[in-house]
Each structure stands twice: as C-alpha cells, then as structure tokens.
Write a structure and sequence with these properties.
Elements (H helix, E strand, L loop, with lengths): L1 H25 L5 E2 L23 E6 L4 H16 L1 E7 L4 H11 L5 E4 L3 H6 L6 E5 L4 E7 L4 H12 L1
Length: about 160
C-alpha cells in the first residue's frame, strides 16, 4: 500500500512540476486580443488574422532548426485540414529559405516567415513550438510552449468555439 501512495505522490509531483514549468515559460506570452501577424505568406499574399475571425483558430510558431517542431509537423497538418491554422516560421531564415524547408518537408500549411523574430516578439514567445488558440472573436483563449499532443490542441480549439 505504501508503494502505491509513493507512486501516486511521485506522479502528482511530476504533474505539478509540469504546470510550474509551463507557467514559467508562458508568463510573458501574449494574452487578450491576439497581436497582429505582420508579413507575407510564402505565396506573397498579405498575412492577416482577419481571415481567421468567426471561428476558433490556431497560431503556431515553429522553427526549421527545432527538433520538437519536426515531431509536430504531421499533427499540425492534420489540424490544418480541420481548423483554421496560421503558422509562423520563427527565426528560420528569409522567405526563400523557409520555402525550401517547407518544400523539403512537404508541408502544406500557410507559412509567414519571421526571420527577425518580430512576430514572435509581439507574442512574447521564449521558445518554439509555441501555440496560441484564438476564439472566434480573435482573443487568445489558450497558449502553450513545447510539445503539445494533437488531442490537446483539438480540445483547446473545441473549447474556444464555445
């Protein structure tokens, strides 16, 4: 019986530590109305959050040099087939470098290059991957940094719809 309680307490400590770390990493991330995303998509069209209004949406900051972001690629592709998703290639080079990476990885998302990190700065990110779930009114409903399971992102998008 004592061994069982030790395991429960151990897992409780792990969960508590996870939330403490998330709180620390998220402390400077944007909240309230989503800051503007400035720049152009790889196809040359102007990036804007206005196209996301009226439905829950995901703003996803990633980087070509980020190994965790690489593990998220299929999940983001799946989400983008079902939800409004805008991705930002944070400090991953200019448009041609990002386009080359997107082509090599066969990513079919809309991407805004952020070579100098200005968009990431407006969102207060400290690392990638970073996720912002927006409500239909354009306000940030949830935010997180680091690996996030697809089911968790889908749940957050579903909750943002309400």
């Amino acid at each position: 019986m004592a061994g069982r309680w030790r395991r429960v307490l151990g897992w409780g400590a792990v969960v508590a530590l996870f939330f403490v770390v998330q709180g620390f990493l998220n402390r400077d991330m944007a909240s309230g109305p989503a800051p503007a995303i400035e720049g152009r998509f790889l196809d040359g069209s102007q990036a804007s959050l206005d196209s996301l209004r009226g439905r829950p949406a995901l703003v996803y900051f990633w980087a070509s040099w980020c190994p965790i972001c690489g593990t998220m690629e299929d999940k983001i592709g799946s989400l983008a087939r079902d939800h409004a998703v805008l991705t930002v290639a944070y400090q991953s080079g200019d448009a041609s470098e990002v386009a080359r990476h997107v082509a090599e990885r066969r990513l079919d998302w809309r991407v805004v290059p952020d070579p100098d990190g200005a968009n990431g700065g407006r969102y207060g990110i400290r690392g990638v991957p970073a996720f912002f779930v927006l409500g239909p009114d354009g306000t940030i409903r949830s935010r997180s940094v680091g690996f996030t399971p697809e089911w968790m992102l889908r749940l957050r998008l579903w909750l943002a719809a309400g």
